[in-house]
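Lab manual, section 2.4: Encoding a predicted structure.

Procedure: take the sequence of the chain (297 residues), apply the prediction step described in section 2.3, and record the output as C-alpha cells. A sample record is shown.
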Amino acid sequence: MDEEIQLEEAEKQEYHKPEPDLEAIFTGSQALKKAPKIYGVSTGIEGLDDLFFIVTSENGKIVKKTLGGIPAYSVMNITGVSDTGKSLMVEQFTVHQASKGNKVAFITVESPANFVVASLKLRASAMGLNFDDFQDNIILIDAASSTKIRENVPDLLATLAYVIQQYKVKFTVIDSVTGLFENKEMMARAIVRRLFNFMKKWYQTALFVSQKRSGHEELTAEAAGGYAVGHIVDGTMVLAKELIDSPFKAKMYKKEIGDIVRLFRIDGCRMSGHDTKTHFLEITETGLVKIKQPIGG
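Recorded output:
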C-alpha cells in the first residue's frame, strides 16, 4: 500500500513544477528560538531516572550530568513481549506524575477505562500514595471501548487535542500503539509517524507501549509493525524475560535453573545520553517495576 501511495505521489509530481517550501527553512539561531529546554522528567520507576544524562563543558572539562528522568518532550517507546512489565511502567509513570500535580492523558487501547483506573489505583497503593488525592489529574481516553477513535487516528488525535487544551496536559501515555494498527500493520509506520508528529506539535512528553511478536529477538527494539515504531520515536526501552534452562545461563545470571530473569535495556535516545548496559528488571509482589544493577555488576 505504501508503495502504491508513493507511486501515486511520484506520478502527481511529474505534472507539477517543484517549488521550495520556504516555511520549512530555518537558520540554526531561528530554530534554537523554538527549541525547548531539555530537562529530566522523573518516572517514579526506581533505578530508571539516573540512566539518562547530558554532557556539558565546565572549566574546559567535559562533565556528564544525570538528567534525573527521561528527557522532557521526548517520545519514548516501551517494547517487549507480554508479561515483561510494560504496562506497569507506564502506570507507575502516570501515577507518579499525577501525584505531583501534573495532568496526564492516558489513552487506553487494550482495556476499558474502568479497568485501567482500578489498576492505576492499585499502583498508587503500592507506591504508598492516596489515589483519591490526585485521581482527577489523570484523564483517561477510552479507545478500547470506542471504535470511533481506535479505528480513526484523526478522531483520536482530535480527542487528545481537546483533552490537552481543556486539562492543560503535559504528559501522554498510549497503551498500546500496537492496538491502533491491529490487522493493518502495513499502516504502522504512517500511524506512528502521525502520533509522533502530534506529540511534538503539542510539546508532550510521551510514552508509547508497543508489543513484540513472539518471533522477535528478546532484546531488540523491533516491535509489531516491524521497526517502524523504534525508527520514528526518540528512543526505545526494551523489556525482556528469559527462562534459565541451562547451566550456562544459570552461571551467567547467577540464578537457579527454572528461574525467570527479567531484563531491561535502553535502545537509543536522540535527546540525551543514556546508559547502554543490560540491566536486571524486577517486578515486585505489589506490582511495581524496578530497574536493578547491570548484568555482570
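Check your result against the sample. The first strand starts at residue 40 and ends at 41.
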